[in-house]
Every structure is written in structure tokens, then in C-alpha cells.
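Progress narrative, work stream C.
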Amino acid sequence: MSIRVPPRGTRGVMFPKLPTWLASFFSRLQRSQFRRKRGGKTGGGVQSLILETTGARTGETRYAMLGFLEESAASWLIIASLAGTARNPGWLHNLAKNPDASVEFGDGRRVAVVAETLHGPDLEEAWKRIGADAPEYVKYRSKTDRDIPVLRLRQRA
């Protein structure tokens, strides 16, 4: 299994690159609200999870709150859209270096996962599903010229 990080795009939505201390503060605040409310949803109403990765450069634990689509009881799809920016999200680089991660769901359940980038027919099917169940992500594709990866998280045995 491997994670493909596409090249940076030349156009996309403006999304600020925050100083590390400020990004950490917002990440802690987001996780706190997620846990207090027992989950959350994206602006488009998609269920969210907290992805815990290991920093590609720092080796430190990193967190990202992301929308997801459940494929099965042990498989979930996540989209590396970063709202349609020209750059890829940091968590994608983290998973490219180490695809082993964990996720936390709104019910408090934590699951160890391994990530893989979808390709070919799997990717086409995923985008059809995303279009039906999470159309906000399809809109992000028109805002950037970067390929937006879709990843499958599978529960580790």
C-alpha cells in the first residue's frame, strides 16, 4: 500500500499557512469541541473523524479533523482536498511517509488504520460516491488544478 502525493497546483483557494503554535492551538480546540459534542460534521454535513498521524519531518503526533465516508465496518474514505487549495494537506505528506495512523470517531471509538491512495476504477467509483454523499468535495475539484487524492483507511488487524 502506498500514498501518492500529487504535485502542487498552480491555482486554488487561498488557505492561510499558520505559524506552528497557532495551528497547534486551533487543532487542540477543534479536538476538544469534537470530543465534547461527541463528533461533528463538515460544513456540508459529512460526518467527521480525527486522524492521528506521525509528522513526516518532526516525528511528532499530528491531528486533523476530516470528513469521511464509511465504506464498511472496517474501511473509510477521506479526501485530501484542503478546501480546493493549490497545496496538499500536511496530513497527506505524513501518511506518505508512514501510512500507519489511527482515527477517532464521535462515539469515542479509536481504530488503528493503514492508508492507501485510490487509483483507476476504485478512484472513479469513490468520486461517484462522493458526488452523491458529499458534494462539497466535488466543488473543490473545480477550484484547483491539483489532483485531489482520495484515500482509503482500513482497520489494521
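Work stream C, second folded protein:
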Amino acid sequence: MADSNKILIVMTSGPETPRRCGTPFFLAAVAAAMEYEVEMICTIDGILLLKTGVAENLYAVEGGKPILDFMRDAIEAGVKVYACTPPMELHNMTKDDLIPECAGLVGGAYLISEGVKADLVLNF
């Protein structure tokens, strides 16, 4: 069992840098399997990974599995993946654009408060 409780992963990488998109979800799944409480907040271009039709057609490496599969592995392990609302406006997205795997919407204040409470914050 983990000595600390919470890991927050802030995902800013998006479809323009696909090779950066699988590892954060893989690490989140590993941390959850190690019994850490793990939350991911997708912000800036990372929000685009939660848009329907994006992650299922995005690959970190040619011939690899889709980023959506990395996301689903993390979620199945217990990771909560949230969409940050300000970049949704930036990318002209609404809640209806989000994949069903998204745990919900959060704002900037939530990101800050959870970052302060977390034992570890990772940024990708």
C-alpha cells in the first residue's frame, strides 16, 4: 500500500504531440495499481484528448495502440480523468463533445486546490 495518498497529473500535451500522450496515462494506471489515488486534469491542448473522435485515432507510435486505450486502462485502474473548462472554450468545445470516459468538468480553482493537496503533481 502506498505511504502517500494522492497524485495529480496535469495533462497539457495534445494531438499535436502524440508521442507525449500515452505515457502519462500509463503512469497513472501504474500509480493507481500501486493504490495511490490518482486524478488527471486535461487542460490547454490536453483537453482535445477528451474530444470524441480524437484519442481513438491518435497513436504514440505507428502500429501501437490508440491513446484512448491508454486512457481506458488508466480509468479501469481507478484513475479519474477530468476536463478543465477554460480550455474547452479556447477549443470551442462543449460538454457534449467529451468522451463518456471523462469523469466531469473542473475549473482552474479545482486544479490549484487539488495540486496543493496532492502528495505529488506530475505535469505532461
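The mean pLDDT is 95. No further action is required on this item.
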